[in-house]
Every structure is written in C-alpha cells, then in structure tokens.
Amino acid sequence: MSHPARANRSIATGLSVGLVFVGCSDRSVTLGWNAADGGAPPPFDGSQDAPPDVSQPLDGSEDAPPEVSPPFDGSEDAPPDVSQPLDASEDAPPADSGNATGPSCMVSGPGLTNCGSAGESCCTSLPVAGGTFYRTYSNTVNGLTEADPASVSSFRLDKYLVTVGRFRQFVAAWNGPWKPPAGSGKHAHLNQGKGLAATGGGFERGWVASDDGNVALTNLACMGLLFPPHVAASSYGTWTPSASTQENLPITCVNWYEAYAFCIWDGGFLPSEAEFVYAAAGGSEQREYPWGTTDPGVGFSYAIYGCYYPSLLGTCTGVVNLAPVGTASLGAGKWDQMDLAGNLWEWSLDWSAPYVSPCMDCANLATGTERATQGGNFNTGTSDFPPARHANNPADTGAYAYGIRCARAP
Fold first, then answer.
1. Other beta carbons within 10 Å of 296
2. How far from chain centre, in Å, is Cα 90?
3. Is there a smaller number of Cβ atoms within 10 Å at the N or the C end of the chain?
C-alpha cells in the first residue's frame, strides 16, 4: 500500500471521505536530673531503667554483628556499572515503568475505572522510551523513504483517549472554579524546567491566562456537517448533561484549549506532534500503521474507521459509530497505547507548519492559524492511519471528530 509522506491539509476543507466543517507533635520530657543544675547525677536505685552492662564481652547468645562480605575478587558476577548514564536509545526504559493516575480517575465508575478489555483504569499511562526517528516517511512495498529527523526524550502517553466519564470530572473542577495557572502545562522535565524547545527559538510558555475565555464547557456543541448522508455533526456529540450510557466513549467536540486545559488539570500536558508521531510509528521502526503492517480490513479489530463500527455496514448514522475507548483490541501500538489510529483525531501541542530539522524535543510554537492533529477518526479511511499523516484545524473549533489524549513526565 502506498502512502504519501506527509499530508498537510485542513479538516475544514474536507477529509478523504468528505468532511466539511463550517472548545511530632512537640513534646517535652522532664528528667530527674539536669546537668545544668550542677552536682552529680543521683545513683541508680532500681527505680529507673537499668543501664546496659558493658563489662562483659558478647558470649554468642546475643545477636552477632553483621558479617562483612569479602571484597569483589572477580570470581562472582560483577555488579552493574552505574558510573555511566543511559544513552537515551529507545531501548532504554524510563526510570519508572508504573502507571500514573490523574485526578480524573480518583473515583470509580463507568469511563473511569473500566476501560479496555481488561476493565482497567481509564487513566492508565504508559512509558514511551525515547529515541530518534523520522517524522516524514513512507513505508511501502517499494521501500522506506525518510526525512525530517527528530529525537524525543522518554515520556508517558496515556493508553486511552479521554472518556466522557473523565471529562465530566474536569467540568466539575472547572466550574469549581479551577483554572490553569499561568505558565502551566509545560514539559517541565525537559531543559531544566523550561520545556520543549520552540522551533523558532525559546521554549514553551505554557498556559496563557487570557485563554481561559476559549474554554466553553457549557457549550460542547459539535461543529460541522458530515456528508453524505448529510448527518448533522451534533449527532456525534458524546457529552451528556448528566452521566449516561456513554461514559466510556471518547469525549468529542472539544477544541484545542479545552484539550490543553484538561491535560493540565489531570497532571499532564498535550503531546507534541513529534511525540505523538514517534509513539504511533513505534519509534525508529517507522511502522506503516501503529500496530504494524496488517491491513485493518473491513471491521473494527484494528481501528475504528469507515463507520464499520458497530454493524460493519460502513454507514454513518450518529454517535453509535463511535466505539468505547480500547475497543479495537488488535490495534495497540509498540508501547500499548490504543486508538492511535481511528475513533478520533487527536489534538497535539503544535501549530501546524512545515517541519524544522533537526529537532531535539522540539515543537512548533510560533503563532499560526491551525493546530496539528493526528490519527484519523471513526469515518475516515486507512489513508489517514500512517503515523506520518496529519491534519489540522482551528484551535477554537470543537469539531465532532476531535478528542484528547494526554502525555506526562516519565
């Protein structure tokens, strides 16, 4: 299968299937004698605890002091050499390989603690070992072509798209009223806390207080029109005013600011475009699809796409065509993230712009007109699945095909 190396196209002008878009305690102890009072201490009269008798040597009945091991003589296995740091190759795992849990999953319930085939925490976040890869590549029967090298440090990427259930916890916090602190949301584990390097110079600036006004959680209206068969985008809104049977579906119709604010509140940040593509490509494996080379065929085992879910008819009718996160069980990427292709396009941190090479933990942070998105959605075709493909959309548009996945410090 042949795939273009990189497509820079706006959802606003249509997807491959015809999408058009029109948010200690302090205690004192009194002793019987104080050296400051002068004189000798009172003799031991049996009323106090007896002092230890040190006049006799140990007779073997007491605990013996620990045995000191002989020095290493070369006959045993040598201890590991920790004098040298890891070389940052992608095979070197992050220091902590456990799961991270954000505040969105602090309570149990649908869309919070029952995601995927294992019915696990929907906040499961998995380590991605850093390395070097090519952001632009075409992996076809004719061979592999590559361009735009980039290096990515180790990070975590959430296993699942953000569910309606998780987003509901965020809405309650925002109305609390929590707001992102100015400057938050950076990749603070990089560059002595300064974050990602901006391709135009400088570093991440994080959340800007004035962007609070771009978050409109009382109006998660889906924008756009899907045709054919001319189904209103509002039919694909997964948000409901109160908890419903849709809590395990991915939240839709969120704009870039809402996605960024959610990830900040949940203890993370939006992944850079390079980070997302790296995870989807399997690092230097430069995979054709996030799961490998297998064509997904007609169905939803590898990805939710083409409106094949749930009936295999390929007809788009509404929210029923979106699947609970993690449904495509064979589509896991190299580091086990689900839905890296299909279900929903995913917002990334970058503005959409031509790549700048080389890139070392970089992002395009210069002001632009649209933000980059990746992964394809529930009604697109396989041409949107190669990790090197991307789309873009205005940051303030809560289009029906857009969702959220957060990244975190390693």
1. 23
2. 17
3. N
Please name every residue paired with 393 in a beta bridge, in sequence order, or none if there are none. Answer: 371
Q: Name the strand (E) or helix (H) holding 122.
A: none
Distance (Å, whole) CA 165 – CA 239: 9
Q: Could you tell me if 181 and 41 are in contact, meaning their C-beta atoms sit under 8 angstroms apart?
A: no
Give dist(CA 184, CA 409) in Å, integer.
Answer: 13
Whole-angstrom Cα distance, residue 15 to residue 20? 7
Q: Which helix (H) or strand (E) holds 228?
A: none
CA distance 166 to 160: 11
The token pair that represents 130 in the structure block = 């850093």
Q: What's the pLDDT tens digit per position in 368-386? A: 889 999 999 999 999 999 9
In DSSP terms, 115 is beta-bridged to 120
Q: Is 404 exposed, middle or buried (0-12, 13-18, 19+ CB in 10 A)?
A: buried
Helix, strand, coil % (nearest 5) of the chain? 15, 20, 70
Cα 202 from Cα 204, distance rounded (Å): 7
Q: Which of 84, 85, 80, 83 is nearest to 95 (CA)?
A: 85
For the record, the structure tokens of 168 come out as 């509901």
How confident is the model over 241-250, as pLDDT tens digits?
Answer: 999 999 999 9
Computed over its alpha carbons, how large is the radius of gyration of the chain?
28
Q: pTM score, two decimals?
A: 0.77
pLDDT in tens, 290-344: 999 999 999 999 999 999 999 999 999 999 999 999 999 999 999 999 999 999 9
Give the closest residue to 252 by CA, choosing from 402, 406, 379: 402
As a whole number of angstroms, the distance between CA 298 and CA 117 comes to 21
Over range 161-187, report the average pLDDT. 97
- The answer to whether 238 touches 246, Cβ cutoff 8 Å, is yes
